[in-house]
């Protein structure tokens, strides 16, 4: 392995650069999802390098990863900012999200795989723990893993990949959803997951479908009410 000299004169080894990239990526990702770095916030490589006490190389690599997650955007002038939230596209996003809740939950209900069900139950345990802790970031992560595990049980890799992408793109939308409850998500929504698990285990395809529809509908309704109730605030966040 060879060391590299960065454009700010520091020397990075592959190992130190990799751990540095992960540190910057994890920190900025959490701040973006928590909205402590609002949409539109500038992400200057030099300032980030100073903040994290490392060269610009791992910072740049972390920003590239965040860009692939859809969380940051590079402008034509090469400046990087936190990606804005396109509220106008929410109706089509919700349509796609609802469809994927349905098809993946239906598909899972048609399968028998105890090992996969154990994973789903573990993800549900993690989600409930996050809800009880009122940890919005952990809720977002656990919710994603729960629904991806259901999709994986369904066995259609295309569905799983597309659903995971939708859930990733909607992380900040989900953050807004949890904020409508002041991060105190009612336990009835934990029970919705339990009902879905029960329908899947029972092989109740139609029941699983109905639960998926209801689960998606209450999320969509809550976000729509948030936007309608406080549109000026939502648009202000988007334009920061």
UniProtKB/TrEMBL annotation:
Domain HTH gntR-type intervals: 18-85
Alphabetical UniProt keywords: DNA-binding, Transcription, Transcription regulation
Listed GO MF terms: DNA binding; DNA-binding transcription factor activity
Keyword Disulfide bond: no
Coiled coil: none
InterPro entries in UniProt: GntR_C (IPR011711), TF_FadR/GntR_C (IPR008920), Tscrpt_reg_HTH_GntR (IPR000524), WH-like_DNA-bd_sf (IPR036388), WH_DNA-bd_sf (IPR036390)
Residues covered by region (Disordered): 1-21
Record's protein name: GntR family transcriptional regulator
Species of provenance: Rhizobium terricola
């Amino acid at each position: 392995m060879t060391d590299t000299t960065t454009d700010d004169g520091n020397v990075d080894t592959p190992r130190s650069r990799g751990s540095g990239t992960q540190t910057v990526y994890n920190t900025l990702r959490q701040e973006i999802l928590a909205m402590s770095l609002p949409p539109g916030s500038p992400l200057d490589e030099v300032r980030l390098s100073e903040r994290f006490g490392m060269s610009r190389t791992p910072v740049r690599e972390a920003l590239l990863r965040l860009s692939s997650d859809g969380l940051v955007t590079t402008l034509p002038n090469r400046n990087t900012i936190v990606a804005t939230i396109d509220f106008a596209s929410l109706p089509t996003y919700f349509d796609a999200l609802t469809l994927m809740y349905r098809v993946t939950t239906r598909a899972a209900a048609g399968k028998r795989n105890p090992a996969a069900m154990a994973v789903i139950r573990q993800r549900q345990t993690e989600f409930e723990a996050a809800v009880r802790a009122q940890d919005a970031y952990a809720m977002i992560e656990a919710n994603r893993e729960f629904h991806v595990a259901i999709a994986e049980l369904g066995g259609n890799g295309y569905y799983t990949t597309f659903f995971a992408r939708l859930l990733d793109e909607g992380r900040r939308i989900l953050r807004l959803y949890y904020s409508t409850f002041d991060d105190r998500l009612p336990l009835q929504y934990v029970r919705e997951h339990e009902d879905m698990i029960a329908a899947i285990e029972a092989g109740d395809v139609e029941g699983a479908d109905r639960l998926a529809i209801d689960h998606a509908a209450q999320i969509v309704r809550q976000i729509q009410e948030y936007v309608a109730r406080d549109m000026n605030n939502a648009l202000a966040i988007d334009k920061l």
